[in-house]
Amino acid sequence: MFWKRFFRIKSAVISLIIIIIVLLVSIFAPYLAPYDPVKQSLAHRRELPTREHILGRDVFGRDILSRIIYGARATILAGVFSVMLSTIFGVALGTISGFYGGKIDMILMRFVDVLLSFPYFLLAILMVAVLGPGLWKACVAVAIATLPRFARVVRGVVLSNVKMDYIEATKALGSSNSRIIFNHILPNISSTIIVFSTLELAHVILSTASLSFLGLGAQPPIAEWGLMLNEAKGYLMVAPHMSLIPGMFIMILVLAANLFGDGLRDILDPKLK
Asked: What is the DSSP string of 144-189?
């Protein structure tokens, strides 16, 4: 039933195909890249697309196609890692806060409120300033900035489930709190977690690429789409292909993740059925 409904949403199907292609490209990057992504050729700097280098060369004469292929690996891994971190800790905070309530809820939610008081991207930059520049440190920073939204959403869903009759019946049967949480509440809110995580994936990919563009994420000579934009920003008029190509791939991947998340929401949200 799920797949029948999913394949009716053409935008979600196309988006899933794009995401799968990017994943496969990132996995098989060493076999697909025609050249070494870090090998420089200063004599051919900013070269326009040719038959040998179909996407041209960058400011150091490196093959842009090879760097795009390897950059898919860094971009996807960074996005998935950030979403996994924020999901795990956000779900834990939201579930504990919503289930136990009282002082525990007040303390945890005030912590979340402090994080929410900062603008999202400013908080990510602040975390990078504390942790230091680097791709994985930027992932942790983005995960911390995303965590409060996960916690808020999960807390709200848990609060609505805790008041339901099946939870009261489970408590009356003598089930422990951990059994109620892991066997009843989490399975019932899993669709909300999946949809929200998928929608946040697009936002996280864009955020990690933005940090790399600012020089706070991936560091040279790593091939990463945001870093490629950073290296090309000073040559927009001379060699526009250097910035247009990675920017286009970021746009396509973020759009695909957004549309895929919207499709999942339409299928899994009972209010939209």
From this structure: HHHHHHHHHHHHHHHHHHHTSHHHHHHHHTT--HHHHIIIIIHHHH
pTM of the model: 0.88
- 57 beta partners: 63
Residue 75: which of 26, 140, 144, 129 has the closest Cα?
A: 26
Phi and psi based region of residue 119 (left: phi greater than 0; alpha: psi -120 to 50; beta: remaining) = beta
Inter-residue contact 263 to 12 (CB < 8 Å): yes
CA dist 253 and 271 (Å) reads: 28
How do the domains of the chain map onto residue ranges? 63-272
Give CA–CA dist 173/160, Å, rounded.
20
- Which residue from 112, 81, 108 is spatially nearest to 96, judged by alpha carbons? 108
pLDDT at 177: 84
The dihedral sign for the CA sequence 191, 194, 96, 146: negative
How long a stretch of residues is the chain? 273
| Contacts with 33 (C-beta within 8 Å, 6 or more apart), sequence order | 63, 65, 66, 69, 70
67-107 pLDDT per residue, tens: 999 999 999 999 999 999 999 999 999 999 999 988 999 99
Two tokens, residue 67: 């760097």
Quote the CA–CA distance of 116 and 268 in Å, as a whole number: 27
Residue range 63-272 in CATH 1.10.3720.10: yes
